[in-house]
Q: What sequence folds into this?
């Protein structure tokens, strides 16, 4: 019985709303995923750097973050202490799920980190370069199966962009969605699919061990220490990153927004946050203020176009 | 240094008093949170992982291993005693375990679950240490078509859990399959049957459904019986401990469960539930007491519990050898490992032997600690059943609700819990079995996705489903499982089979 009582206290504590906290950060995903890890890393770093006394994290999982953002926009309106983690996946999910609440209904603060996409094939594959892959794709788009994450996510979008850049009809791509990077990676390693596409970090150790061949990365410039061309050098005009950001509640004043922005400027420069990004393998793609808002608008527009091209959004 | 030396060194480190204490704390915390229905090991580990950050690498690994195994075990305790599975992998445990508990044999049920978990954990962890590189090669051969064949086999064998009426069993199964279609389609990202309700976009949560079907439905059913219900459950009949016969019936089931659970857990898309389903079906087929199934057969607890724990260790095979997180729990573990500077992947065994063997040694210690903690508690747990019925069921309702809310703080989720509880009540009243609904909900999407993936890769060529040797082999076994009983029945041996099939309520 003692266990039950203790456990119920624990459960009660979990269900309590976040009062008496400087910041409460919503991770619109289940514990363990990228957004949750970002939220919890922010929590640790903000507290350690004494930017905020007490930070709480709450998870509202579901549907690529669209459930979280809907709840955040309606419940936290005007609350200067409420923050939400989000990312590029949300941009696609809002469009495919026809979410009534969009990123326009929250106050974007800054893009924090990003991961670039990598295109790989199993080591045993006859495909040696990205050029080989594109040639095969042009020959018969259906014969090239791409293994990656969930439908309409960054991996799927990147595949569509590559096809389009290569002059192949994006609706013809044979994209096989797997739930989670692990399952996709297994299918690629087992040569079940022609090629794999996912965040570089997912493949990194396999590439080092020689079981996967890295064909190209989706960054603007070559990634330091990585021996692979960018898609751009390979005459495919695609630059895409799976970025993560932090947003504040809608309806906050300009001063409140400036205060949050200042806090994140401080965080970005702090040793703790820099160290966290290094250990987690997240690229620092910090972008804040009007520059971020402009980039965000561009990302949303280009995502909508490609999702329409692929046929996921009508 | 040889493999064995590393392991011994790891064990020596884990045996330090301070580390043993960490293991104990981890196991206790893990069990405490794990008993909450709806909170499975993944959530338990995610919630408790930050606790371990304050310790050094060895200490935190050990505590982490304790939390993991504790969380796994906690789910089976509530399944057995209260018929409220804490997570999808312990649903099968509830089938026989709760029947045993209500027949006054909760003690042996808990004991066989604990010892079975220990045996399976021990064997599987040793297998992880010594044969992981081989197992993973086999696991990678499994592509969509092989998985689809495995799902077909699972559907057919699991149908033995459908009860005495095939029609009612199939009806329940199809309710589950229909519900499994709700939400965003994995392969195309389109919504199905969500009727514009955003909360339905992610489909129906298996644990919510399991808790509703088992706990809420049961509570309503008991409440509706009112004073006409049979008298108080006899909490303890005979010994609290396992008798000689219990041991004799359990040990083979433990070993078989381990044998089934470990490789399936090691498969990137295997999952713990399928191992428990297959183990249950196997035990039912092989048991000398098939008539007891559905009324509290100890093999039906021993096998699936062993399979559950073995598959938990199996999950670590692709995680440690390939860096593949194949379950939610594994994904959280990956995050945890990174915290300790451990980068799982193909080079891990070569570059970080101390930490890997430290982890494996920690798992062994945590496994032992779990047994040490839980066996003496069996007597205490069983006394839960002596609580007067109104209080007991009120408590079950409370914990079922708390667990669901804890896992997903949403009013909608609570509404679903109650709605499905009402449906489950109706199904009980009209004699429809509950388990197939959950089976359909779990296996349906897996089978559908793998089939569609296989066909997408082959660009619509159906023959690929049979041309792989493994897939063909699995399909043949499935066909035999379907046809052989029909032949036997036709040859006049139907009585035996009818008896076998009639054992589930």
A:
């Amino acid at each position: 019985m003692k266990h039950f009582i203790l456990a119920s206290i624990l459960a009660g504590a979990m269900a309590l709303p976040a009062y008496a906290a400087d910041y409460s950060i919503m991770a619109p995903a289940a514990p363990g995923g990228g957004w949750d890890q970002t939220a919890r890393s922010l929590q640790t770093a903000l507290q350690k750097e004494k930017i905020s006394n007490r930070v709480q994290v709450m998870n509202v999982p579901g549907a690529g973050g669209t459930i979280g953002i809907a709840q955040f926009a309606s419940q936290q309106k005007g609350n200067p202490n409420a923050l939400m983690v989000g990312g590029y996946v949300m941009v696609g999910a809002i469009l495919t799920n026809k979410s009534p609440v969009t990123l326009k209904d929250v106050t974007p603060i800054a893009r924090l980190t990003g991961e670039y996409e990598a295109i790989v094939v199993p080591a045993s594959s006859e495909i040696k370069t990205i050029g080989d892959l594109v040639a095969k794709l042009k020959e018969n788009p259906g014969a090239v199966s791409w293994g990656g994450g969930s439908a309409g996510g960054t991996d799927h979008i990147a595949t569509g962009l590559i096809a389009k850049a290569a002059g192949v009809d994006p609706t013809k791509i044979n994209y096989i969605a797997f739930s989670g990077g692990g399952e996709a990676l297994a299918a690629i390693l087992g040569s079940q699919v022609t090629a794999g596409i996912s965040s570089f970090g997912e493949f990194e150790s396999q590439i080092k061990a020689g079981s996967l061949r890295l064909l190209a990365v989706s960054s603007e410039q070559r990634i330091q220490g990585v021996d692979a061309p960018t898609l751009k050098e390979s005459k495919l005009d695609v630059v895409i990153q799976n970025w993560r950001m932090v947003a504040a509640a809608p309806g906050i004043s300009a001063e409140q927004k400036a205060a949050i922005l200042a806090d994140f400027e401080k965080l970005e420069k702090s040793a703790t946050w820099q160290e966290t990004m290094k250990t987690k393998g997240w690229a620092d793609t910090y972008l804040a203020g009007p520059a971020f808002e402009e980039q965000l608008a561009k990302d949303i527009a280009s995502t909508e176009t490609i999702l329409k091209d692929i046929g996921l959004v009508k | 240094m040889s493999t064995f030396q590393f392991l011994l060194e790891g064990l020596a480190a884990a045996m330090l008093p301070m580390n043993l204490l960490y293991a104990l704390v981890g196991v206790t915390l893990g069990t405490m949170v794990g008993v909450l229905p709806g909170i499975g090991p993944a959530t338990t580990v995610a919630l408790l992982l930050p606790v371990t950050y304050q310790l050094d690498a060895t200490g935190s690994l050990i505590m982490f291993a304790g939390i993991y195994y504790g969380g796994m075990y906690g789910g089976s305790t509530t399944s057995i005693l209260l018929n409220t599975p804490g997570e999808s992998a312990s649903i099968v445990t509830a089938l026989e375990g709760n029947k045993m508990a209500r027949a006054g044999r909760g003690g042996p049920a808990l004991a066989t679950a604990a010892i079975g978990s220990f045996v399976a954990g021990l064997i599987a962890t040793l297998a992880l240490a010594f044969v992981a590189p081989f197992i993973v090669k086999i696991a990678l051969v499994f592509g969509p078509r092989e998985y689809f064949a495995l799902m077909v086999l699972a559907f057919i064998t699991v149908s033995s859990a459908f009860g005495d009426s095939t029609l009612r069993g199939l009806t329940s199964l199809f309710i589950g399959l229909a519900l499994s279609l709700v939400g965003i389609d994995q392969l195309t990202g389109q919504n199905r049957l969500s009727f514009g309700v955003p909360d339905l976009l992610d489909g129906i949560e298996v644990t919510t459904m399991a808790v509703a079907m088992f706990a809420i439905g049961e509570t309503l059913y008991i409440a509706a019986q009112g004073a006409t219900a049979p008298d108080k459950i006899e909490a303890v009949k005979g010994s609290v401990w396992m008798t000689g016969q219990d041991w004799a019936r359990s040990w083979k089931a433990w070993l078989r469960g381990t044998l089934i659970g470990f490789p399936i857990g090691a498969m990137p898309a295997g999952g713990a539930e399928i191992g428990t389903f297959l183990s249950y079906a196997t035990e039912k087929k092989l048991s000398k007491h098939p008539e007891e199934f559905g009324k509290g057969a100890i093999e039906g607890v021993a096998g699936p519990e062993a399979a559950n724990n073995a598959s938990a260790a199996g999950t670590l095979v692709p995680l440690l050898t390939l860096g593949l997180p194949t379950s939610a729990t594994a994904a959280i573990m990956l995050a945890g490992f990174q915290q300790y500077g451990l980068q799982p992947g193909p080079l891990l065994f070569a570059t970080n032997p101390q930490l890997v063997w430290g982890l494996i040694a920690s798992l062994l210690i945590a496994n032992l600690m779990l047994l040490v903690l839980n066996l003496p508690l069996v007597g205490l747990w069983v006394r839960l059943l002596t609580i007067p019925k109104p209080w007991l069921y009120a408590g079950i309702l409370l914990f079922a609700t708390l667990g669901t809310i804890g896992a997903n703080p949403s009013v909608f989720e609570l509404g679903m819990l109650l709605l499905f509880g009402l449906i489950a009540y109706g199904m009980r009243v009209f004699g429809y079995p509950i388990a197939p609904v959950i089976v359909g909900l779990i296996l349906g999407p897996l089978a559908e996705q793998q089939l569609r993936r296989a066909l997408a890769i082959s660009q619509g060529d159906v023959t690929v489903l049979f041309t792989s040797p493994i897939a063909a082999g699995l399909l043949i076994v499935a066909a035999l499982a379907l046809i052989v009983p029909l032949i036997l029945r036709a040859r006049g041996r139907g009585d035996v089979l009818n008896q076998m099939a009639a054992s589930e309520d």
Observations:
- The mean pLDDT of chain A is 83.
- Residues 194 and 201 of chain A are 20 Å apart (CA to CA).
